[in-house]
TrEMBL record:
Belongs to the Rieske iron-sulfur protein family. The chain crosses the membrane at residues 60-81, 93-115. The keyword Acetylation does not apply. GO terms for cellular component: plasma membrane. It comes from Quadrisphaera granulorum. It is found in: Cell membrane. InterPro entries: QcrA_N, Rieske_2Fe-2S, Rieske_2Fe-2S_sf, Rieske_Fe-S_prot. Signal peptide: none annotated. It is a multi-pass membrane protein. This is Cytochrome bc1 complex Rieske iron-sulfur subunit.
Length: 354
């Protein structure tokens, strides 16, 4: 490797047969190239032709109004095609198709309208914002507020009343489908959640076939997923199952900590507990035989069967409600009464003792 004897010129370095050009010391490379700057701004047709701008404004408003049509289609489909009256697959398919297309078209049109508004009517001048310290002075904050106000002014939302009003109208009715859909989430908290189908004498049956369960068939360590007898004949079987689903487990009675207030709630070591996690309502369906722990797979809340399903890990705050059980004169397991307090997640109408 040799350095060039001529000072002020770049030195040529050899690296295994190749060469590279090194900048001389003291040379500012940034000053060797002229800043090309920003290219000349290209005005859109709507920037120079008021007629084209008005046409674009009408187009945006029309798109927003089409969004409102999609919302109306959703509402009409929801009320005109109720699946409660006709539970056939064809009705379910048609209802889902109309609801999905209506709501999807409404949201799509609002998005397209906003994009078209921005690309044709909002200012598109190129700007450069120099970096500065994160902390700002009072003047900086005042300037930032002015920038927001300038953005509102440049967007034309205050001047273009047709666009503004059509957008407000489309956004105003868009949440209505969500409000309507909330009706299908189930009953509001209150008395309807405090009681399930369990009552004195109702047999415990296997989920999902509804076969009654004999106490003699429940061996130590076995787990049964249980529903109340006759649940399928109720008016709302899915809603009832969400309140009444139970896990049936047999454990040696001496391993369970005695609780005088629960005396007689089990039958010869056979315990029945709500399957609905007290965190957010996921199904507690995992049982570990060695530790006698029940695990919720959603958020890993863990309940100790030997402590009457007390929470020992995870976000749940309350133990699983126990269903008092006994046997009838035929040897089948039956409920003594309903859960002592509502199963599932907490809500604002629970009592202090719950």
């Amino acid at each position: 490797m040799k350095d060039s004897p001529t000072t002020g010129h770049a030195a040529v370095h050899s690296h295994g047969g190749g060469t590279d050009l090194a900048a001389p010391e003291g040379t500012d490379l940034e000053n060797r190239f002229a800043n090309p700057g920003l290219p000349a701004h290209r005005f859109r047709v709507t920037d120079t032709d008021p007629k084209a701008a008005r046409s674009a404004e009408r187009q945006v408003s029309t798109i927003f109004l089409l969004s409102a049509v999609g919302t109306v289609v959703f509402l009409v489909g929801y009320f005109a095609l109720p699946i409660e009256e006709d539970k056939s697959f064809e009705r379910l398919l048609l209802s889902t198709l109309v609801l999905g297309l209506g709501l999807g078209f409404a949201i799509f049109c609002i998005g397209i309208g906003l994009v078209h508004w921005a690309k044709t009517l909002m200012p598109d001048h190129e700007q450069i914002e120099l970096r500065h310290d994160i902390a700002g002075t009072e003047d900086d904050r005042r300037d930032a507020a002015n920038i927001i106000l300038d953005g509102v002014e440049e967007s034309g939302v205050m001047r273009r009343t047709v666009i503004r009003n059509s957008l407000i109208g489309a956004l105003g009715i868009l949440p209505i489908p969500a409000v309507v859909l909330f009706r299908d989430l189930g009953p509001l908290p209150g008395e309807v959640l405090r009681h399930s189908l369990w009552e004195n004498g109702v047999r415990l049956t296997r989920d999902p076939d509804g076969t009654p369960i004999r106490a003699a068939d429940v061996t130590y360590g076995s787990v049964f997923h249980v529903i109340p007898d006759g649940m399928e004949d109720s008016a709302h079987p899915i809603e009832e199952k969400a309140k009444a689903a139970v896990l049936l487990i047999r454990i040696q009675p001496e391993k369970v900590q005695a609780a005088p207030e629960r005396d007689g709630w089990d039958y010869d070591g056979i315990y029945a507990y709500s399957k609905i996690c007290t965190h957010v309502g996921c199904p507690v369906a995992l049982y570990e035989q060695q530790t006698h722990h029940l695990l919720c797979p959603c958020h890993q809340s863990t309940f100790d069967l030997t402590q009457h399903c007390k929470v020992i890990f995870g976000p749940a705050k309350r133990p699983l409600p126990q269903l008092p059980i006994t046997v009838d004169n035929e040897g089948y397991l039956v409920a003594q009464r309903d859960f002592p307090y509502p199963p599932g997640p907490s809500y604002w109408e629970r009592g202090e003792s719950e």
